[in-house]
Amino acid sequence: MGRLLLAESDSYVAPGPQSFDYPAIFGGVTKPMVQIALSVIIVAVFYLTASSRLKLVPGKFQFLAESAYSTVRNSIGGENIARKDLRPYIPLLLTLFSFILVNNLFGFIPFFQLPTMGHIAFPMGLAVFVWLLFIFVGIRRHGFGHYFAKTLVPEGVPKPVLILYIPIEFFSTFIMRPVTLTARLFATMFAGHIMLLVFVTGGEYILLHASAGVKVAAPIAFLMAIGLSFVELLIQVLQAYVFTLLTANYIGGALAEGH
């Protein structure tokens, strides 16, 4: 899960942001960059394989692909985007969900054991993409002026209230959305990985450096790490779902007639 962090005095040094800093593998390419590239290949190969030989009785790849598609179409897209607008956005939402999920699951898979989204640059890039996307689709649907007018100046709001409403709505919609998208995905992946490292490296330190009476705590730390790994697995899947759900919600809101 991570190497034991020791100071020169053999005292335990808790994991922190430095636990996400990996030296370049070659040139300027780091482990998270390799994982990003590998995730693109995994997602592409998975769906190409699953759709290459479609059968009435699906095999395991087809079943998993159809399950993911149904979840994205019905539970994510269908609940947030109007039926008449949904179809063009299903491939985008499915790709986004799959991409985030694979990169989150890298934190659970042996050898990788690093959630790519624990590096803030990657969720930030996705959040900026979503931000630009929902603004673009809103402007394309309603026109520049009408989109922003309907978003910031809804009908029925008294004019004196608009003095407060407009800056608050602008801040929450066009500033805070990418910030919260970034923070939610990054923070959960970062915090979960740090917690796992605490138990693993702490247990390793106790096992190797503590007195005999304290060493009995090492197996407890390792068992906690195992249990926490499965909790983190659930969170990794959930966060991919939530990010995609919010993306669909923003797109659906931008396309709605109310905007």
UniProtKB/TrEMBL annotation:
Q: Where in the cell is it found?
A: Cell membrane; Membrane
| Keyword Cytoplasm attributed | no
How does this chain sit within the bilayer?
Multi-pass membrane protein
Regions crossing the membrane = 32-50, 92-114, 120-139, 160-179, 185-208, 220-242
The alphabetized UniProt keywords are: ATP synthesis, Cell membrane, CF(0), Hydrogen ion transport, Ion transport, Membrane, Transmembrane, Transmembrane helix, Transport
Keyword match Manganese = no
Q: Which GO terms describe its cellular component?
A: plasma membrane; proton-transporting ATP synthase complex
Taxonomically, the superkingdom here is Bacteria
- Give the molecular function GO annotations: proton-transporting ATP synthase activity, rotational mechanism
This chain's function reads:
Key component of the proton channel; it plays a direct role in the translocation of protons across the membrane.
Family of this protein: Belongs to the ATPase A chain family.
The name this protein carries in UniProt is: ATP synthase subunit a
Query: Where does this protein come from, organism-wise?
Result: Solihabitans fulvus
